[in-house]
Amino acid sequence: MAGADAADAAAGPAERKGVIMGTPTGATVVYADGTEERFTDLAGALARASDGRVEYHYAYGPDLLPPPAPDAAGMWRYRALLPLDEGPIRYPLPVGGTPLVASPGLRRRVGMPDLWVKDETRGPTGSNKDRATALVLEHALRAGAETVSCASTGNVAVSLAVGAAAAGLRAVIFVPEQVAESKLALMRLAGATVLKVREGYDAAMRFSRQAAATFGWFDRNTGYNPATLEAKKTVAFEIWEQLGREVPDVVVSPIGDGVTLSALAKGFRELIACGAAARLPRIIGVQAEGCQPVKRAWERGGPVEPVTPNTIADGIAVGDPLSGAPVLRDVRESGGEVVAVSDDAMLQAIGTLAAAAGILAEPAGAAALAGLEVALEAGLVRRDERVVVLATGTALKNPIFPPLAGAVHTVHADLDAVRRALGGG
Questions:
Q1: What pLDDT was estimated at residue 197?
Q2: What is the three-class DSSP state of 161?
Q3: pTM for the complete prediction?
Q4: What is the mean pLDDT of residues 220-230?
Q5: Strands of the 52-57 sheet, one edge to the other
Q6: In the chain, which end has fewer C-beta atoms inside a 10 angstrom radius, N or C?
Q7: Tens digits of residue pLDDT in 122-175
Q8: Structural domains in the chain?
Q9: Could you give the percent of the chain with pLDDT greater than 90?
Q10: d(Cα 192, Cα 210) in Å, to the nearest integer?
């Protein structure tokens, strides 16, 4: 939905049994060692946000879910399950409502008649990060903030730069020194102040947190700001609605910081809590072979230990994921698995998504499809199951391509030349 009036109309009743819709009733903090602590007061939970990840709870019930609406209705229609007080939506960019693609060509190519792609490349900056940016900046606008900040390998940074420009806020962004030049250019185009951190992404994250606290900026950082998890869980709500209010058998998600996967799990758990679903889908998490701290922890049965990333997939090149422990919990509870894919496999998946489904994905955005192939070969997924893979980021921001198969001919303006180019003699 494009405007606040439409969002408000879809929100449903404002109160239920004295509980304000959209107001969390408590929270759980998940610490790095996997232990959890439950809080009935949000202030107590938020005070521990630097030690673990905060997960909000709500007064769940079927009336928190909006009535059916077109796919393009957008994220704000789920505001009764978002940490958002009443009032008009001030964030100006459309967000959410991305299509669930049933591509005949992709289904034939992979040999799966019930394969779906949740195409998050359709957001304002071509990334699933746009959902989290929207909710964080809505909070920032309501709080009267002037400056917002984050650390990012690229997609979050572009999303925040563009979102802040649209909202009339200043963006200060911390990136690793090796950030993709194409993404850096987009940040600068949107007027952001960008700080390259020589020590890499993990140091950039710590530095940005310190700077935000020191200068009083509104901190958008994924994993630390609970709103990022809340916004991303709306992907699960949309998948459920787009499948006719049914849960798929399997969802395949890339793992960088881990919030995307855990948000999916949280969304499906909340559908169960609201009485709208009976089970979780199995969740397959996908990491790059050159950056697989979560997969190694999964195999060892221990905590996530940092690694040095070495992959072309900058969107998931996170050596010390902030949400590693919640991801392990969520995959385990869903009966899923964690797999790793090579850079070559991601490049091949980029080509498959483009040629068979018309979806232009960057390496991290194609990781889920590459991971599905690994899962199929390992017997983790059956070809007759209903499976949703996430395409999380567009190739248009990060043009890394496989060997190109499309034919190019230089011809005279002559129809016979066209016939010869098409192989017609």
A1: 93
A2: helix
A3: 0.91
A4: 90
A5: 36-39, 26-31, 52-57
A6: C
A7: 999 999 999 999 999 999 999 999 999 999 988 999 999 999 999 999 999 999
A8: 100-123+228-391 (3.40.50.1100)
A9: 78
A10: 19
